[in-house]
């Protein structure tokens, strides 16, 4: 469903900014430092979890000054809605994963169902090791933890830096919480 321009602006106007662009940039620098300590010299295969992981991947990779390769996987469970369902695998690069040190990059750790299943899939596909990083972690119980976290925010429905609301707002820099009346 498309949002018209008036609706779009109203949703953005009612949303709360939880993390500013400058704070996100600082979080990305910190993540890059930790990932460099953990992965430099291991020639990792970075897996971007499409679609939301595309922004954190694009912002983080130029901050990683060591040898690595980039691939992606596509597992989704929200598909434009605000509550998660079953994981649907659209692309799982099983052959590419065997024997590799894998870095999984995603935008958000919410219930943790997606990351848990992605990590399990990497192990099933024969990864040598799996490290995970998320840009945003919601303060709530998760099915699994990420090894590296950019920012921690309250458990509200979010958009920005890859996270979508109704398939929009992935391009907003920063993290924003959707107003209750829009849920
Ligand atoms: O921790 P969870 O509760 O599993 O939620 C996190 C996942 O949900 C979102 O993906 P989504 O399925 O919405 O697909 P998208 O990346 O296309 O937005 C997000 O990108 C994470 O992959
Ligand atoms: O709060 C969220 N916003 C957007 N996508 C998401 N996927 C899981 N949680 C969220």
TrEMBL record:
InterPro entries: HGPRT (IPR050408), PRTase-like (IPR029057), PRTase_dom (IPR000836). It comes from the Bacteria. Keywords: Glycosyltransferase, Transferase. One of its GO terms (molecular function) is magnesium ion binding. CDD domains: PRTases_typeI. Residues 27-138 form the Phosphoribosyltransferase domain. GO terms for biological process: GMP salvage; guanine salvage; hypoxanthine metabolic process; IMP salvage. Gene3D superfamilies: 3.40.50.2020. Coiled coil: none annotated. GO terms for cellular component: cytosol. It catalyses: GMP + diphosphate = guanine + 5-phospho-alpha-D-ribose 1-diphosphate; IMP + diphosphate = hypoxanthine + 5-phospho-alpha-D-ribose 1-diphosphate. The keyword Glycosyltransferase applies. Pfam families: Pribosyltran. PANTHER family: HYPOXANTHINE PHOSPHORIBOSYLTRANSFERASE, HYPOXANTHINE-GUANINE PHOSPHORIBOSYLTRANSFERASE. This is Hypoxanthine-guanine phosphoribosyltransferase.
């Amino acid at each position: 469903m498309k949002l018209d321009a008036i609706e779009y602006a109203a949703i953005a106007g009612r949303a709360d900014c939880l993390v500013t662009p400058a704070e996100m940039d600082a979080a990305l620098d910190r993540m890059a430092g930790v990932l460099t300590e953990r992965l430099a010299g291991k020639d990792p295969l970075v897996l971007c979890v499409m679609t939301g992981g595309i922004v954190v991947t694009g912002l983080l990779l130029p901050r990683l000054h060591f040898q690595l390769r980039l691939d992606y996987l596509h597992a989704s469970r929200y598909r434009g809605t605000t509550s998660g369902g079953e994981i649907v695998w659209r692309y799982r690069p099983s052959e590419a994963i065997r024997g590799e040190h894998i870095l999984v990059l995603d935008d958000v750790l919410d219930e943790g169902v997606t990351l848990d299943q992605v990590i399990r899939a990497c192990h099933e596909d024969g990864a040598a090791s799996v490290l995970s990083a998320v840009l945003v972690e919601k303060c709530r119980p998760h099915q699994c933890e990420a090894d590296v976290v950019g920012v921690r925010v309250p458990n509200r429905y979010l958009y920005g830096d890859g996270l979508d609301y109704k398939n929009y707002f992935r391009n907003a820099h920063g993290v924003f919480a959707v107003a209750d009346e829009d849920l």
